Each structure stands twice: as structure tokens, then as C-alpha cells.
Amino acid sequence: MADPLVKGRGGKGKGRSGRGGSGSGKGRGGAKGKGGSGGGRGKGKGTGRRSGSGRGAGGAGADLRTRVTEALAASPRGPLKTKELARALDIPTHEYRSFRDLLESMERDGRVVRIRGRRYALPAKLDLVTGTLSVTRDGHGFVRPEDTGEDVYVPRHRLDNAMDGDRVVTRIERRPEGRNREGSVIRVIERARETIVGTLHRGARVTYVVPLDVRLNQDVLISTSGDDVEADDGDIVVVRVTSYGEGRVGPAGTIDEVLGPINAPGVDVLAVAHGFGIALEFPADLRDAAARAAKDGVDDPGPDRVDRTDLLTFTIDPADAKDHDDALSVQRVDGGLVEVGVHIADVSHFVRPDTPVDIEAAARGTSVYLVDRTVPMLPPVLSNDVCSLNPREPKFAVSVFVRLDGQGRVTDRRYERTVIECAHALSYEEAQEVLDGQGSVDDEVDDALRLLDDTARNVRARRRDRGSLDLDLPEAKVILDTEGRPVDIRRRERKESHRLIEDFMILANEVVANDMEARDLTTMYRVHERPPREKIEALAETLASFGLKLASRKSIHPSHVQALLDAVRGRDEEALVSNLVLRSMAKARYHTDNLGHFGLASEGYLHFTSPIRRYPDLVAHRVLTQVLVHGRKEPYLDRPALSRLADQCSARERAAEEAERASVAMKKVEFMEQHLGEEFPGRISGVAAFGFFVTLKTYFVDGLVHVSSLQDDFYHFQERDHALVGERGGRRFRLGDEVQVQVARVDKEARHVDFVILGNR
Hints:
- This protein is α+β, with helices and mostly antiparallel strands.
- It contains 16 helices and 33 strands.
- The strands form nine sheets. Strands 14, 15, 16, 17, 20 and 21 form a six-stranded mixed β-sheet that branches. A five-stranded mixed β-barrel has the order 4-5-6-8-7.
- Helix 5 packs parallel to helix 8 (380-386).
- 41% of the residues are buried.
- Residues 4-60 have low confidence and may be disordered.
């Protein structure tokens, strides 16, 4: 599976397209016959800089930040005033104002903290932790540190006015043995949201909004009566926050936009998009800038572009995909080798650093695939037209040519900036029919697909042999009618044609990562760290209750987890075990240090293959083309700045994933509203003190059986056994049990379905 535990390439193209783009100029320049430069490790030696060194090549700012932290760490007097720091670092008088600005910037970034007397210190020196706050449904919080260390637990009464997603400074209050550190939020560095989406309520004395996001557990008081806004009680509105509250006083705001009743067509998905800060439209000036960038890029192909239009290339994507950012070619070469060309849209040719289009793309971080629409990272003139590798049109690409032997080993690779022309835009279904011998495109394409499939299987086998995980988790596909109403919910199929594409995308991403690591280039790696020891212990205990054993707990390796997954393949509990494994894993993220990828059992991995829809891929393209193709200097010399951008991209990706899940959940609830009172078979997929969750077998929908609905006994939660057990009768509801339930209630605003157990009374 591509990049386990996060959104992979296979999620592309879900739903309808975003917006239609205006056509760009046609008649591309020739770019004929230029010889391409080879890739590989190239000439010249690495810089000798290792990850984590805080590269100082980005100008005085990056260097001075490091000197500030070193001075504060070494200070025998503890925290220092601005002037004391300036003297210690020999800052000239004429640079004092800039130095003061730099300290304020470092404070905003959380690298230093300012205490009484305007003195600066390192957070760790004062037992402070800077990080991002996540709030649970019951109102408690966890702060994920930005440096290292375990999360900090923050009880709800110590959150002050911080909200989910805020960057905060937390003071450590307690260190309970065997549990997370406990702390208090003492300062909010950066707010995650300026607006809140919720349901408007007009009371006799006050007007307030109840947030749709359950992690925002305080109502927002509307600063005015709201009479000047044409909104009815119960409408979904967007509130601009004017005060985040203090003490017992909650947040307040003004109504920015009225979306309408939650059941009106399209309002549910609009609410999700606004709630996660997803901009649905591009401003007119940005669309104009994108059109100019498209025309300029087409008119000037740039140096060293190689004409590869003679290669048979084609894309394989979902049938409803509107953008095509990767294509494949394959041919046999001397020595019994196969050369696979992975051709990726050359977005970096059109989107130049620090231009308006680039700044907007970095802010968005990723395209978002909501249940009924695609919200692209780039304006449609680029994403759907000029950059997209549409068939039968010459297109600019960055091509990785990988030579493989009969065992799937890479023997050589090279990089080129190319012009290609895809012969076909195949759907996964069309490609699968060829592989199954049930369909045909033409003889040449059919042969190419079969050769690619054989080669992909060898590549996959090598990856499996080293321990790469294959978490084949089921995914829901919501079928909508023309008005956006759900008419069916199915499990999304994963075909061999999907695996074929995943195999070559993973291969290309690894090849690029290895070459960048060998040259010590500054880029964004896709990292997935080893799961925490306590989570592996908890997983092993849960599995033991099902009669399953994890090979090792102390020195866990991906192969141990894969052996477990193989053991339950095809069994009723396969999906359950896969979900348990998923929950025990760390989340993949972007980082400027190559920390490896546990899920792929890979020493180095990055995202390179989807620059139309992911900003980190665009970063990788700029590094590769400038250094490995053109032999120029690195484009990203300020490593701390790129590190902050990597964190931002990780955050936007998480928001996009949550928005996608929320939009699907909305439609699931709307669909189940049509089935109130109906009965379905299901399986218990989660157990807690307040009840247990059931996943239906028929429609792949989750719902809660609340403990209060179990009226035949008093039930107690046995955490070790993942079960609710009746006090008198001993009846057990255990993780993995099959049950028969009835749909009792739906709540679209809360994205919640309630079931009751049949035969319970």
C-alpha cells in the first residue's frame, strides 16, 4: 500500500471535479532533441552537512537563531534580556532593531519564551513545552511537542482559552509514573482558526452558535443580537471570532456567512470545508496570475528539456479523475533489463518560488477530495489543464527512468526534464480488464501493461521481503445522485491495477529520496517513525485476547506486524486487526531530517509523484531539477524555514484528511436517515465505557450502541478485554463480536448514528 497510515495516491480523483478552468495557450514550443542530463548521484561531493545541523547557509537569520539558542543554553545567569543577549552575541548597534525583531519571531515560532522583565529563555530550561494542542471529544487536551518527547496531557480546566489545533506553550505540572506528563496551557502562540462553523440559536436574551466540531466544546456568543443577519434559528453559519474568551467567559464573534439549513443541498459539505479552513475558490487575481504562469511556461520550455514524445506513455487513474500527474512507460533494454519511465507533471516549471500562485499553494498544502467535489491546491488552469498529463497533448514532465533486473532490483536510474505525449488516459477498470485477459486497448498497450504488471510484482515482492506493511483497509465509496444526496455506500475496491501504480510510485519516491540523501540535499522527507513502546505493548495485549501473538514487542520490526496481518488474511477479523494495527502506529509526516519510514520498512522516502496535489512533492521537484538535472545550487538553503513549512504541510494534510472523513461521515448519516428503524448485521469495532461502536456489514457505516440503551443489566467496561460485561447476567459485548442492530437515531450535525441491540430488553 502506498505510504501506509496516510492518504495515498489511490485517493486521487474522488468525487466530481472542482471548477472548470479557462483554456491556456496551445501550440507548445518544440523542446526537440536536447540531450538530457543524467541523474544519479552525479558529480561533486556532498556538503558534509548532516541532518539536524541547522544549516547556516540561509543567510544570517538562520545562523543567528542557532547562536541565540546556544547562548541561552549556556547562560549561567539563566534568562537574558534583549540587550544582554545582544552584547553576548556582539550584535552591532545599527542591527539591534533587526535583532529584536528576530527574537520576537523566534518567540512566535516557540523556539524561545519571554518571561517577566522581558527576559528570554529556552522552553526546556523552564520546564515548558511548545506544541500543537489536540482536544478530545470530552474536552481534555494533548499537546504534541515540536521538538521531541511524549505528548503532554492537559485537563480541560487547564486549557485556559486554547482551542483544538492552536500552537501553545504548556507548563509541566506533574510527571505521573507510567503516564503522560501533565501540564497547563500558559500561552497561545498561534490560533488555528479565525472562524468557527456551527448551528445558530436565537434565545430570549442572547444569540449563540453551537460549533459542529465536537472538539470545540464551548458555545460562541454572537456579539450583536444578530438581527442584522438573515439567518433563521437552526441555520448553519460561519462565525468570525472576535474574542477567544478568558476565565469563565467563553468565546464571542460575529456572523460572517450564512450557509443555510443543514439539510439543504450542499450545505453539509460547505460546513465541513469552512470548518477545516478549506478555501473553495481562488481569488480572481490569483486565477489571472495562474493563467499568466501557464502561458509563460508553455512559451518557454526551459533548458535541457528532452523530447520523449516517441515513448509509449499512458496514465492510469480513477475513471472520474480530472488531473493526471503521473504516467508510465516501459521497454526492454540490453542485458535482460526492463526500463520503467515514471513521468511526473513538471509543476515546478510553471509554479516558481515566492510567486502568488506558489504562496497560495504552500498555504493550502494539498488538494482536498471531499465527498462531492475536489478542491485543488492549484488553480484549474494549471491543475486540470496545463500541468495535467492529458492524453494526446505534448506535456512537460520530470521523468525518472529506472532500470530493473528480473528480481525487481534497481540497477540504474537517471533523471530528465522531458516533453511527453500520453497515448491514453486509462481508468483502473480498463487496465484491470487487460490484466485479467477480459479486455484490450491495443496490442502495444496491452503488452506494456502486462510487462509493467510482471515488473511491479517483482518490485512488490522485494518490498514485502524487507518487511513493508500492506494494510489493505476497506474504504467507503459514497454514491451520490445529481443533487448530492447519497443513494448507496459501497466498499472501494483495490485492484491489481491500483497496486501496479502504487508499486512504481513508491519505487520512484524511494529512488529520489536515496539520491537526495546521498547528496545531503535539503528537502522534505516523508517520515514514519517506529511506534511507541507502550502502544505496541497495548496492541500485543489486545491481540492476545483474540488468540493472536505479535512476534516481538521490544524490537518491533515491520515484518513482525506484516506476519500478523498475513495470519488473519481472509478471516472475519482481518479488518478489525488491520484497524488495531493502524491505531498503534505513529502518523506519517513531513520532516527535513530523513528519519526513515517504518511502514514501508524504508531507509529513505519522500513524496515526489504528485506535485499537482501535494506541496511537498513540488519542493522535491525543485531540489531534483535544480541540483540533479541542471547541476545548480540547492533551492532551499534556509533549513529552519523549510522545517516550519514541513510542519505546516503536515498540518494541512491532517486537516484535509479529517475534512474528507467528515464529509463522508455526513453523507453516511444522511443515508442512514432513510433507514431509521431497519435492522442490520454488524461487528463490534470499538469498545469504551460509554458503549461500543458497530460497523454494519451491508453498508460499511459505523454507529454507537450507547451503554444507556442496554437495559437488561448494568454493564461495566473491562479495558483489558475490550468488553462491556453485564453485572448480573455476565453478558459480554466484546471487540470483534457479531451483533444484530437497529438504526435508532441519526444526528447529521454531530455526524452520529445510534444503534440499539436487538433482543436487548
